[in-house]
Design goal:
Blueprint (H helix, E strand, L loop, with lengths): L26 H13 L7 H11 L15 H12 L2 H11 L1 H5 L1 H5 L1 E7 L2 E6 L2 H9 L1 H11 L7 E5 L24
Parallel strand pairs: 2-3
Antiparallel strand pairs: 1-2
């Protein structure tokens, strides 16, 4: 033993106190520790808790057992839209985009679906003649919509003619009957 080595500790030293838990360095470690605190360590559960968990889950998972078959993307999206209640808005938007297929190219060229409010589809037409033609076809159009898009919730269709000019308002309006006052 050299004198330069410094003082040596006694042979029986008490154990050092446990070091405090180190703070996590990364975001991933913090997330892991947070999940572990929320969901708990599975090994720390009692035997009864593990038994209740296994009864709740049913049979253990098997890699090639039933319920593990892959599903198509259409089935997955359908399940998600049903669960979130998106069927009606999706059906309504699909109805708006499929308007030319439903009424035909000629009628679609002169009419545009504008909005859907409280089960009423509003369609703006180019002229009063086209609005009248579509009003005569209202039952056919409504029946086609209900058959193709039942989730849209359309109960009636309203066809609007273009707005006619009014003599009641504007920069050249006058009080009274105005230009129609020449007949009497």
């Amino acid at each position: 033993m050299n004198v330069d080595d410094g003082p040596q500790p006694p042979a029986s030293t008490p154990p050092a106190p446990p070091e405090p838990e180190a703070q996590p360095d990364s975001e991933a470690q913090r997330v892991y520790l947070r999940f572990r605190s929320v969901f708990g360590d599975p090994n720390s559960r009692s035997r009864d808790a593990r038994k209740r968990k296994s009864i709740k889950l049913g049979s253990p998972s098997q890699p090639f057992g039933t319920g593990r078959e892959p599903r198509g993307i259409a089935d997955v999206l359908s399940a998600v839209t049903n669960e979130l209640g998106w069927n009606s808005p999706l059906a309504q938007s699909e109805l708006m985009t499929a308007w030319p297929d439903m009424v035909g190219a000629e009628l679609a060229a002169h009419s545009d679906p504008v909005s859907i409010d409280d089960g009423t589809l509003t369609v703006q037409c180019d002229s009063t003649a086209w609005a009248t033609q579509l009003r005569l076809m209202r039952t056919q159009v409504t029946t086609t919509i209900v058959q193709r898009y039942p989730d849209a919730g359309i109960q009636s269709v309203r066809f609007l003619a273009p707005n006619a000019p009014t003599w009641k308002r504007g920069p050249r309006s006058v009080p009274g009957r105005g230009p129609r006052d020449t007949y009497g």
